[in-house]
Design brief:
Layout (H helix, E strand, L loop, with lengths): L2 H14 L3 E2 L24 H4 L9 E9 L1 E2 L2 E2 L13 E10 L4 H15 L7 E6 L11 H7 L8 E4 L1 H4 E3 L4 E12 L3 H6 L13 E14 L5 E14 H8 L12 H11 L7 H22 L8 H20 L11 H8 L4 H5 L1 H32 L4 E2 L1 H11 L3 H10 L3 E2 L1 H19 L1 E3 L3 E2 L7 E2 L6 E4 L1 E9 L3 E8 L1 E2 L13 E5 L4 E4 L1 E5 L2 E6 L10 E5 L1 H24 L6 E6 L4 E6 L6 H16 L5 E7 H6 L13 E7 L2 E4 L14 E10 L2 E8 L1 H20 L6 H37 L1 E3 L2 E7 L4 H14 L3 E9 L2 E8 L1 H7 L3 H8 L5 E6 L2 E6 L5 H7 L6
Parallel strand pairs: 1-2, 6-7, 12-13, 16-20, 34-35
Antiparallel strand pairs: 2-5, 3-4, 5-11, 6-9, 8-9, 9-10, 10-11, 14-18, 15-18, 17-25, 18-19, 19-24, 21-22, 21-25, 23-24, 26-27, 27-32, 28-29, 29-30, 31-32, 33-34, 35-36, 36-38, 37-38
Helix pairs in contact: 3-4, 8-9, 9-10, 9-13, 10-13, 13-14, 14-16, 17-18, 21-22
This protein binds adenosine-5'-triphosphate (ATP) and magnesium ion.
The site of adenosine-5'-triphosphate has 16 residues, from strand 5, strand 10, strand 11 and helix 7.
GO molecular function, one term: ATP binding
Cofactor: Zn(2+)
EC number: 6.1.1.7
Length: 870
């Protein structure tokens, strides 16, 4: 069965059982501080499990792009070496949010695998949770009894907390689970060792394919468990592993998910898969990593120096490194695989198809820049090798290469071993550990459990309509970190504070109680759908109402910038073309920043056109048309733009100003006239094919022009308030250029004359052309004249001196042939004669200088020079 059909069959099976099919959520998580990437199918549904939001349908099925490269689930180091772990993989899932539970979940899993997909029952093993004393949990006999209806008891294994109790992270929803394992070994192998003994033993042919999680607890910060009000089903099946089983092959890489990519790598690199293990690992690493990187870029996460972007950069660099070392690829080539990937997956994941060109460009540029780093690193490494005495390179040096220049340590080790040198690995690891400790200490945070003041109170956001309202505190907690100190997080029954999101900053403001006590709200953020207000202190009267007030001025300025961002987006698409896609946006009160896909620098005309386009719409006084809670399809049909990498619910909010319609949760002005004026202050590149515009609106534009005007007046003043200051400046510049030229010519003439004079003053002593003289030149002049003379006269010995601002300088030039034949050394000469001018110096045997503070001694130094040649 082809992989496309496997995916389709899974989804339609659950669709028939009243599940809604939903598309994969983007991989990069935006409002979850505990998780960077979606690492399991359940991550995008976390708010449903936590009870912070309600799904439209209690039954959902999907295939979710997952990435396991950081945090609690990190498979990166396995990838390439085994046959069944990937960085990015698809997790097929069926979900019940407070609807069906173990009975149906198990029955359907069994039906799908054995009936629909026709997997032989004798290949399957299942497991149930054995219980755990510490957590006070008994064995999951409920699941055990259900499984007994389908599979013989000797194929039901029990497992401990590690394998059979699923937890999302240190905190949050969790529960016992049943894993389904498949034994794909030959009959011969099976006769030797029973499959039962190989389950969960990291055997490549006895692998877990599906995990059915029975969510029934919540793990609290103090480690204890509490029962969830509703029980849920969360299942996750590895799509690539399922394809391996159904296609009767022994490795995920032999399924049609990977074979086209591997074939393309073979063609590009001229290597053959399955001939040499090292080459094979490299090919698997690259085939895997290109998927992770391509999808992450398509989801809007570009490689960068921090956070999620840095993780992506490291994955790509790992692929480049394997290509560089084992496939001899010294130029970019991974970007060339995006084409096959798109052919294979573009249909199921349209975000890739739509942005193929951008994905290719970004990968190519990343490859190029890392290959340059590798080149520079090789030069530095060679220098380290030359300086190394003995047979071991110090860990600290290797660490510096790794840390400062990004040069990979395994490559260092490999190159050293080729040169018969060893790497002090213990020393390296020690440095690495030290660095890790430093950054851990810096980012350490501790989060207390919520203190609940009012149970079961849903929070409501009213900030689109009001900036002030009376609120009740429903819960709070303290979060302590090295970086921010102690902060309190407060949640209310309702709030006018806009939480950071969609690029727009969170609101600031204050809370005031009936006694006049005020607490400032420093920021507002959303975490898993809960709006959290950050304060430095806890309000005194927790159980009494507060007046919550948003800083109106800041909010208004931010709104001007947000609406202007929409108009800018519209302007770019209309002036540059519809290939322009939003790639990032930051809406502050002081300015706005907008990143978008476009392949060349904007010309001055284009920038002016964009400004005029936006300003025309500001002057057009276009009113806001806002629609809340409309079906997504309806908004899209009306022409609303949606963004890749953004997670939208079933109902959306659309924001329209004339022809500009966007899905947006941010706050906006009521009429474009409020913006007053729009001005672009910078345009530049952020990555291959991504440009960045920074712009300002409203009062910020007034400040910008008045500051410019002040500068202009000041400059005009310096130009004696002439009528035409630009012309006056041009004249000054021209005059300056011509004066510079004249000076240069004069200096050249002077040096020529001096050279001629000096040549006639040379005296021959013992076959050496000798001169010791004080000249009226600076240090550079002395050197120039010496070298000019040296170019014309052989067997030369010169000692020049000069005096400047009470300091003395000696400079000695000796022809190289004299250095060799007579053992003369300019460095030694200036060191010895330097004592007369009370100074010191040095240099090379053929040229050296000394500086000193006693110009009186120059005459004596010059007089002594003769002794070196006589
Ligand atoms: P394993 O022990 O094999 O690493 P897991 O216990 O980490 O698996 P779960 O977290 O239960 O797996 O994930 C559910 C399913 O997702 C697994 O049954 C497996 O089929 C698949 N899966 C997990 N990790 C990966 C991976 N790195 N690459 C491909 N598929 C994976
Ligand atoms: Mg795992």
């Amino acid at each position: 069965m082809k992989s496309q059909d496997v995916r389709a069959k899974f989804l339609s099976f659950f669709e028939e059982k009243q599940h809604s099919i939903v598309p994969s959520a983007p991989m990069v998580l935006k409002d979850d501080p505990t998780l960077m990437f979606v690492n399991a199918g359940m991550a995008p549904f976390k708010e449903y499990f936590l009870g912070n939001a309600e799904p439209k349908n209690k039954r959902i099925t999907d295939t979710q792009k997952c990435l396991r490269v950081s945090g609690k689930h990190n498979d990166l180091e396995e990838v390439g070496y085994d046959t069944y772990h990937h960085t990015l993989f698809e997790m097929l899932g069926n979900w019940s949010f407070g609807d069906y539970f173990k009975e149906e979940a198990i029955a359907w899993a069994w039906e799908l695998l054995t009936d629909v997909f026709g997997i032989d029952k004798d290949m399957l093993y299942v497991s149930v949770f054995e219980g755990n004393k510490e957590d006070g949990l008994d064995m999951d006999t409920e699941a055990f009894d259900i499984w007994k209806k389908y599979i013989s008891e000797d194929r039901i294994l029990t497992g401990d907390k590690k394998d059979n109790f699923w937890e999302m992270g240190d905190q949050g929803p969790c529960g016992p689970c049943s894993e389904i394992h498949v034994d794909i070994r030959s009959a011969e192998e099976k006769a030797k060792v029973p499959g039962k003994d190989l389950v969960n033993q990291d055997h490549p042919q006895v692998v877990e394919i599906w995990n059915l999680v029975f969510m029934q607890y919540n793990r609290k910060a103090n480690g204890s468990l509490e029962s969830l009000p509703n029980k849920h089903i969360d299942t996750g099946m590895g799509f690539e592993r399922l394809c391996m089983v159904l296609q009767g092959v022994q490795s995920n890489y032999d399924t049609d998910v990977f074979t086209p990519i591997i074939k393309e790598i073979e063609t590009i690199t001229n290597k053959t898969y399955r001939k040499d293990e090292k080459v094979d690992v490299a090919i698997r690493v690259i085939a895997d990593h290109v998927r992770a990187v391509a999808f992450s870029i398509a989801d809007g996460q570009l490689p960068s120096n921090t956070g999620a972007g840095y993780v992506i950069r490291r994955i790509l660099r790992r692929a480049v490194r394997y290509g560089f070392t084992f496939l001899d690829k010294k130029e970019p080539f991974i970007y060339r695989l995006v084409d096959v990937l798109d052919k294979k997956m573009g249909k199921a994941f349209p975000e890739l198809k739509a942005q193929k060109q951008l994905v290719e460009n970004v990968i190519k540029e990343e490859e190029q820049s890392f290959l340059r780093t590798l080149d520079q690193g090789l030069v530095l490494l060679n220098r380290i090798v030359e300086e190394t005495k003995g047979d071991t390179v110090s860990g600290a040096k290797a660490f510096e290469l790794y840390d400062t220049y990004g040069f990979p340590i395994d490559l260092t080790a490999l190159i050293l071993s080729e040169k018969d040198l060893k790497l002090d690995e213990a020393g390296f690891n020690e440095e690495l550990q030290k660095q890790k400790n430093r950054s851990r200490a810096a980012s350490e945070t501790s989060t207390e459990d919520w203190t609940i003041l009012i149970e079961d109170e849903d929070e409501e956001f009213i900030g689109y309509d009001a900036l002030q309202v009376n609120v009740k505190l429903t819960r709070y907690r303290k979060v302590s970190s090295k970086k921010d100190g102690d902060m309190y997080q407060l949640v209310f029954n309702l709030t006018p504070f806009y939480p950071e999101g969609g690029g727009q900053v969170g609101d600031k403001g204050y809370l005031e109680d009936a006694y006049g006590d005020v607490v400032y709200v420093l920021n507002t953020k959303k975490e898993n759908n809960v709006i959290i207000h950050f304060t430095e202190t806890l309000p005194k009267h927790l159980n009494e109402p507060f007046k919550a007030v948003v800083d109106e001025k800041q909010r208004h300025r931010t709104e001007c910038n947000h609406t202007a961002t929409h108009l800018l987006h519209q302007a770019l698409r209309s002036i540059l073309g519809t290939h322009v896609e939003q790639k990032g946006s930051a809406v502050h009160s002081k300015y706005l920043r907008f990143d978008f896909s476009h392949f060349s620098k904007l010309t001055e005309d284009e920038i002016r056109d964009v400004e005029s386009f936006v300003n025309a719409r500001i002057n057009g006084k276009i009113p806001l048309v806002e629609k809340r809670n409309i079906p997504k399809e309806e908004a899209i049909a009306a022409g609303a733009m949606s963004l890749f990498g953004e997670k939208y619910g079933d109902t959306v909010r659309s924001i329209q100003f004339g022809q500009s319609i966007e899905l947006c949760g941010g706050t906006h002005v009521k009429n474009t006239a409020d913006i007053w004026h729009f001005k672009i202050v910078s345009e530049g590149a952020v990555a291959a094919g991504i440009r960045r515009i920074e712009a300002i609106t409203g009062d910020a534009v007034k400040d910008f022009y008045s500051e410019n005007n002040r500068l202009f007046i000041e400059m005009k003043g310096l130009l004696n308030n002439v009528k035409e200051p630009v012309k006056a400046l041009q004249n000054l510049q021209e005059e300056n250029t011509s004066l510079k030229k004249q000076i240069e010519a004069l200096l050249k003439d002077k040096a020529k004359n001096i050279k001629g004079e000096l040549k006639s003053e040379l005296t021959e002593i013992n076959g050496i052309q000798f001169l010791a003289k004080k000249l009226d030149l600076d240090a550079a002049g002395l050197k120039d004249v010496a070298f000019e003379l040296g170019g014309e006269v052989e067997h030369l010995f010169l000692l020049f001196a000069t005096e400047n601002e009470g300091k003395a300088l000696l400079s000695c030039y000796i022809s190289k042939d004299l250095v060799a034949s007579k053992g003369l050394n300019a460095g030694q000469v200036v060191r010895e004669l330097g004592k007369f001018i009370q100074g010191g110096g040095g240099g090379q045997p053929f040229f050296a200088t000394a500086g000193g503070k006693n110009p009186e001694g120059i005459a004596q130094a010059l007089a002594e020079a003769k002794k070196y040649v006589s």
